[in-house]
Prior knowledge:
The complex is a heterodimer.
Chain A: H1 2-7, H2 9-27, H3 38-52, E1 58-60, E2 65-67, H4 69-89, H5 100-119, H6 123-140, H7 148-179, H8 184-188, H9 198-215, H10 223-230, H11 233-254, H12 263-284, H13 289-309, H14 313-340, H15 355-358, H16 360-374, H17 380-392, H18 398-424, H19 440-459, H20 462-476
Antiparallel strand pairs in A: 1-2
Chain B: H1 14-28, H2 35-53, E1 67-75, E2 80-86, H3 91-107, H4 116-135, H5 139-148, H6 150-160, H7 165-194, H8 199-204, H9 209-226, H10 235-242, H11 245-270, H12 272-298, H13 303-323, H14 327-358, H15 374-387, H16 394-409, H17 411-437, H18 451-469, H19 472-493, H20 496-500, H21 514-522
Antiparallel strand pairs in B: 1-2
Amino acid sequence: MSASAALFVPELALLGVAGALFLQSVAAPERAAARVAWVPAAGLACVLVSLACVGKSGTLFWGSYQVDPLSQYFKAAVALGFAIATLNARIQPTLDSRRVSDYFLLLALCCFGLMVLSSAVELVTVYLALEISSYPLYAVIPLRGQDRQAAEAGIKYILFGAAATAVSLFGLSLIIAGHNTTYLQELAGRPWSFAEAPLGVVGLAMFLAGFLYKLALFPFHFWCPDLYEGASNETAAFAATLPKLGAVVALVRLASLLKPGLEITTLLALLAAASMLYGNLAGLVQKDVKRLLGYSSVSHAGYVILGFVSGTPQGLAAAAFYSLVYVLMNLTAFWVVSSVSVDGRNVALEDLRGLHKRSPALAFTLAVAAFSLVGLPPTAGFIGKLFLLTSAWGHGYNWLVVWGCVNTAIAIFYYLNLVRYAYTSDAAPADLPELPAAFRPRSLAWAGVLSATILLLGIYPNPIFQWTLVAGTRLLQ
Amino acid sequence: MPEFAHLTFDAWPVLTALVFFPLAACLAVPLAGSDESARRWTLFASLVEVLLALPLFHFRLGYGGYQFVELVPWVPEWNLHYAMGVDGISLLLVLLTVLLLPLCVLCSWSYIRERVKEFHVCLLLMTSACLGVFVSLDIVLFYVFWEAMLVPMYLLIAVWGGPDKKYASIKFFLYTLAGSTLLLVAIVAMYLKAGTFFIPHLSEAGFPSGFQHWVFLCMAFAFAIKVPMFPFHTWLPAAHVEAPTAGSVLLASILLKMGTYGFLRFCLPMTPEGSLYFAPLMIGLSIASILYGGFIALGQSDMKKLIAYSSVAHMGFVTLGIFIFNLRGFEGAMMQMVNHGITTGALFMLVGCIYERSHSRQIVDNVGLGKYLPAYVFFFGLFSLSSLAYPGTNSFVGELLVLIGAFEHKVLYGFLAVPGALLAAAYMLRLLQKIVWGEPSKGKAWKDLNLREWVYFSPLAVLVIYIGLAPGLALRSMDPTLEQVLAAFKAKAGPRVEVVEVPGVPKEPITEEIPLVNETMGETP
Lengths: 477, 525
């Protein structure tokens, strides 16, 4: 039993953080505000714990829970995202200070769910993990003072989410009916073409809906821009990034079922193509930075799918790598949004005017994030996209690769707009509060660390990529 | 690890130092106490950069392969390398880039008054990225630099540009990036066919014919936008007119060369059959660029716009020289690339120089300077003559070689291109006449060139005359590489080369003609 507990250490660490937060919120809700400063540090400790557990492998809970390089990679990524997101959310102008502990508790629980998800290799477990990670989010979204938009966003998220998970659950029942098993390993050996197993294919397509919803892939994306706009900046940063990691890991697990050429794979490719185009076209006309990032994530969901359609270890590795890059660059962009918006309001493109004067470091960070989102070298976004495109080529989906590149060309405009507003116009909008002096040094230092990480990953992706490649190879053996 | 028996190594990493020194130097710029010290530091750094380029003069002249090669694995899983090297195609472009940096700093000395530090950071970044483009031997590394250069260039136009800078800068960015996305597709496709990103290996790969056709189109689209060739040129006048002087200089002298460099480095060696198949199209577009650019330049009232359109025409000669597939054409194209860099860069500096006095780029606001600014007019005359390819100046060599090559290839192409040379004379002389003798004179109260301005015009003026009278050294440096490219091209593009050639032209082996060119043009000043 001790050996199996050792496999579970990253989850336990995060659960420990959640437990401490729970006690804190029950014991002294009034004084909690001052006492959450330790959470990012604890998040960082979780990253270290996850990294320490990298070499572990084994199965738990009657084969439904697998610890392998892939799960450890995603656990470390989730922990890293948790650390950054909580660091970002430390100071949250629109959050009632009595609720701060609860807020962090919910974030920690969501991350716990994601960690479980990255190890789940049995469909019911996958489904449960998905739900564990979703419920805290439903509660977190509306926590933005008395904001009506936030409440609306919360309702939208929960309604769409409930519908998607219901479809997902129905699909699960069809898979069970068709194949009489829920273990991925056994399912991988079954036929997945429509001609041979129609019930299973329909079931899988419906089951995927739950994850595509998390990923905000067209046509499951409707919640995404509204949620980003409605939720507070810090919450949006979290909701925009970490759940996507969960969706990607689940898809990577399911990838052994998605052979190139199958109907379901082609369906995914088509959805990816539609997602890229729709996200980018809609992004062109956005005025609100968070909405813009929302549509950007719709298009990025399409790019990630590129990694799944090839059915090769390289493709899975590229998708896993890109999802980490995606989390980093989005958290960086949201970091700037959260820092610029001192009083917690939404940031419009106009509000970025003259940012280079008000805060050169933030402007630079925004530029790095934006250029990484476009996929310009030498940022991590470029190298991630290159890996994705390269992996998808030559497996019958060349059109999708070309489509992805054309879409990059469309997307430049709105990402460039971020940089343009930040750098080329001098006048700051009159009604925007100045960045407070006390807030600057630390937040700027972290912004610098984030942008340096993006550049470093772009220049030297090898260690991380190697890791994901090992994970991908192991998975498809 | 690729084999590199045909490459030469050097102990000191000349190219890495060249590419990354400006990058390192730009980190120190924000620390400068005042704007003035930022300028001084950048000037100092640019002079150091020139010194760092001196080892390149060890370049072995008779050798056609890559020299000063550096090769380190980068991402072994994908066979990515950090590979750099120069050969006869890139050497002169590298030297030109290095030379232009201090001149750009000098010509912005009093022109740029706002956000001086950021400006110099952008200049240094530009130089790094441009050098990287020319020396990369790994196609992904090339692409990294190729795209990285867009950002500082965009900022140069968008921040320090003229009144319409937003429109111009976005247009520049969108055009070039739209083109290069397809270049990325081509890179990925070639990698999956050949299993390597290493440029020398890709050049030897030999892809299937149909594959070559569309890969050529993908790459040519990116390069044609950068050059820019006729239907894709509209970003250029906008960007040139709005960019600050140094931005225009970099744009004209270096960025445009990347497109033609790409044709020579990638399209011809990697997709020879595609190049051959689409050559009539490319030649047609080149001639269209020459004539269209010339005609439009004739009608401009804005000096910068005039020079921008003349660039379209001049670059048309370069692409024409490349796609006629003979040595004269290649030599002419290379010479024209270098010469256009020198001459047009200088012309943009001249416009910037007079703009500081008149605050207008309109020709009518800058007329009749001959009597009052003799030194300025001297340089203006010299560079204008060079621009219209007056014999004895540098551009003459390039244009003549291209025209000889064109006639050799097909008489019709030659005849179609010649009016371009006439148009150049027409629009440049018209401009020159107004600037020197126009009435009423605007320049009575203006000061003539100061020492700083003398300093940055002189090296370019010397080069104009030196290359004009003695192009031998330049030709000798590029010939072995060009011969190799041509021979490989002929071998791979197969017997169909013969079909394209006009039966009337005697088919002498090309190699025998080269020494002739060297003797006649090189050794007799």
